[in-house]
UniProtKB/TrEMBL annotation:
Gene3D superfamilies: Ankyrin repeat-containing domain. GO terms for biological process: exocytosis. It is found in: Secreted; Target cell membrane. Transmembrane segments: none annotated. Its main location: secreted. Keywords: ANK repeat, Exocytosis, Membrane, Neurotoxin, Presynaptic neurotoxin, Secreted, Target cell membrane, Target membrane, Toxin. This is Uncharacterized protein. It comes from Parasteatoda tepidariorum. GO terms for cellular component: extracellular region; host cell presynaptic membrane; other organism cell membrane. It holds the Pfam family Ank_2.
């Protein structure tokens, strides 16, 4: 499931950037690595909002990466592309992540 083609894309990257939502969900359910090959970034650059949302719903998706080519975060890229729905999803995930971290430190 996590093999890469000659261009460094996994099956999840290809499905995500092509906005194949059902295939994206199938691959995630079958243990595709949601960070391997940066499927969220590739989907975001293509404007594949449905698959971005599916990837954002996965608790293992890393949204804090900064990408070398432009030095932007995923949130900045979504904002610059005018993808308001995704900007909201990124902010919600950031809020949730912070509240989980606070709760973990309080109850550890």
């Amino acid at each position: 499931v996590n093999s890469m083609n000659s261009e460094g894309d996994t099956a999840l990257c290809l499905a995500s950037k092509s906005n194949y939502a059902e295939i994206t969900e199938f691959l995630i359910k079958n243990k595709a690595d949601v960070n391997d090959g940066d499927p969220l970034y590739k989907a975001l650059v293509q404007g594949s909002q449905d698959t971005c949302i599916i990837l954002l719903q996965n608790k293992f998706t890393d949204i804090e990466k900064q990408f070398k080519d432009k030095g932007e975060t995923l949130l900045q890229t979504a904002s610059l592309k005018g993808l308001e729905r995704l900007v909201s999803c990124f902010l919600d995930k950031k809020r949730l992540s912070k509240s989980v971290n606070i709760n973990e430190s309080l109850f550890s």
